[in-house]
TrEMBL record:
Domain Homing endonuclease LAGLIDADG: residue ranges: 259-340
GO molecular function: endonuclease activity
Family matches, as SUPFAM superfamilies: Homing endonucleases
Protein name per its UniProtKB record: Homing endonuclease LAGLIDADG domain-containing protein
Transmembrane stretches, start-end: none
Amino acid sequence: MTAKRKDITRDLLQELYIHKNLSVYKMAPILHCHPATLSKKLHKYHISIKHPVKKINLAKNELKELYFTKKLSTYKIAKLLNCSVKTISNKMRKYNFKGRPVSKPPIDEEILLNEYSNKRLSLKEIGIRHNLTASGVLKRMRKFNIPTRDSWETNTGIKIPFKGTLEEKAYMTGFRLGDLGVRQSSKKTKMITVGSNTTKNEQVVLIKNLFKKYSKVWVSKPNLIGVINISTILHPSFSFLLPKNDNIEKWIRANDKTMRAFTAGYIDAEGSFGIYNKRAKFRLGSYDKNILKQISVWLKNHRMKTIFVLERKKKLGQNKDFWRITINDAKSLLILHELIFPYMKHKKRKMDLKAAKQNVVSRLRSGTIRI
């Protein structure tokens, strides 16, 4: 039984279908589903069809003039009349018109290999250069035994493999565990679909900046309650984002720099800094008990005074207890700033941490605290 595609939301469809003016056929490979699935979704969400099918009135003499006298191709006639090539072909059969002999423009194997493999042009782009259809280019590629690109490239554009540092990988992992939904689009393509819903513009900017150098990122308009959907499809090399376990992987914990980056990512997703009663405070809460415990141990190893407690027992309808790390100690906040600030990417979190540090420094100068 095929799973229902809950990730194809009304906002996502409106963004692609209405605002970006993509057809269901162009959206289908992007979202990895059949066009019929998208048509059903459009109907379900009451999104009006942009170009409902209408009957084309094409007289026999008019078609004869366009095809035989003016020598237009069925593709050009279809474009001229704003209809499909299939409609023109059906009219040709209805009027018993025989097609003109097909000429096959020559294309050199070396040129084809260079344009497809080196210049990374699509079949359509190559076809335009050589007066061929995309299928015509594909036939010549098969003739020359030129291998085609993987489907994850041809369907949704070029996906750049992950080539970042271990620190970048650790940050992404921490941020993913805190805030991102990640799944494999299909076993065949092995592409990685990443998405999130948020009401905070800083979160949208962070996610977009995090992935835009690797793939196109889609951002919807806010819905009626201000929720923004943001999503992207990544190269299979981002499979390290797939696991959703309540545990920090050993390769991250084995190195202090990767642990700093991971913690910064997790804090950007789940943490907060604030000034309460003129005193700075750090709070980090989630349902991931083991992750928080491992972060707490790491913080203590860096001479920070932390409070790690069960804040809320699970209630009916909730799967887990809610846990929290809190830091009130002034010196500990300064150490935390030194360790993670260089790795943080969330604009507001960075501003809040900077304000927390300034609060501690101000209290030190006034003599109200000592460390």
